[in-house]
């Protein structure tokens, strides 16, 4: 179960690095390799004989089980880190629980041998590199040349879309090109001046090229996060990252199969897919694809923003952080998962938020129930549905709104580790959750285990609080003021958000948006629906499924109360990709006549295919 470099790969590495260093190098066909954006070496590894591309040898049972161990937790090997990164990416995206039906009702994790090509790449003008990765299966389908390109969901690392793009594309014989889109868990710890090298292991500044190497600072400066502190506002370039990953994938196919080269967008169909932030990145790419590289697009629950329509992520996230704790105290949410504790009462902080809102004059009722009802009506008027609010109880319980708001504000404002807005900062979590040195064992595994925006994995989010009974409200209101305010800082944040808006894709591009009707993180009313409406107003013909009873996190379905109420979204993404394949390669239809499936929650028993209403 290890990634190993065979002699041929060892010979390839310097040749690949030379190609990256000299963009004038050409394939014998005369076509440029187009890898001038690669920084340093291209790392080539082979994965077979107990290891593979899709699960690192773990298979479905291993992916669903306990985290793959490190023989030496303080010094995990590159192969161990890769295996765990793949496993945690699967666990973060798919429902692998015993009742969820993955591998029996839909999906699967076959063993796919092949090669990986991984490198750091850079967008012109960017301060920090991003990762690109091409997975090339041994059984690449030469008769139906296909490259799937994708971007990680959330702020995850390079394998953050493997459960969607890899699970669908690799078994079909497609190569898959990934980008981390300038995010990922290549955290830099100033305490020992270390970051993450290309193979995932940690190294000190100056020893190796690092995934993220911020400006020097004192040892007590804390922990720097690429998405948050690179100074690049990477979200504004997510579409460029995706198109660059597609070019990288084609170049690596040239190198994997030189006798069949060149691989181009004219002879190899490029299918773009992604979910959540990855879906938004793909839609950004569709709007920037002036060369017509993309043959078709399928996105799930995209974080997409159209200027002047819908609502930007930062707007509704900071609104949710302030208002949802009080609104969820309302009796109508008493049965929502995570909205009530074992004693049948909401978390103590939520009624306190109602009192805080009244003290600020934002609600006027004299009791908690009245205050909660007023907060609920406020959010309803702002476009939140009951279903979205009910599911959002989980994100509220996990303090996700504050984590997103603090990190994204810093990214939009291009702040460094020591001047994040509203007094926030990241540091290791010491005793009792207080700031302290990072746990060395947790730090060694950050690249594989962390989700890309703390808190988590021994990294805490600190600051943005005061000594009041509702200590987090001051930081949340400060973050909200960056949206509602009129000062220079607020204006700068709006400039950063505006840069993330999607552009219009070309006419005739097959494009399908699949979104859960109950999404409480990226509600359809703020994201997919205004985007699809805008496309139609502009003469485009996107397909759109608003899947009943699906919410944002398939990985939450094993949690108490979730699987009984909701259906997974991944099977609908796989089906949409199947139909796109049939359209591109077999002349199949591409029609909005396909009805949205009448999905039904599985209840307390195991998921059955009839609940998904898949044709």
TrEMBL record:
The keyword Methyltransferase does not apply. SUPFAM superfamilies: alpha/beta-Hydrolases (SSF53474). Coiled coil: none annotated. Residues 1-20 form the signal peptide. Gene3D superfamilies: alpha/beta hydrolase (3.40.50.1820). Keywords: Hydrolase, Signal. The keyword Signal applies. Transmembrane segments: none annotated. This is Hydrogenase. The lineage of its organism: Bacteria, Pseudomonadati, Pseudomonadota, Gammaproteobacteria, Lysobacterales.
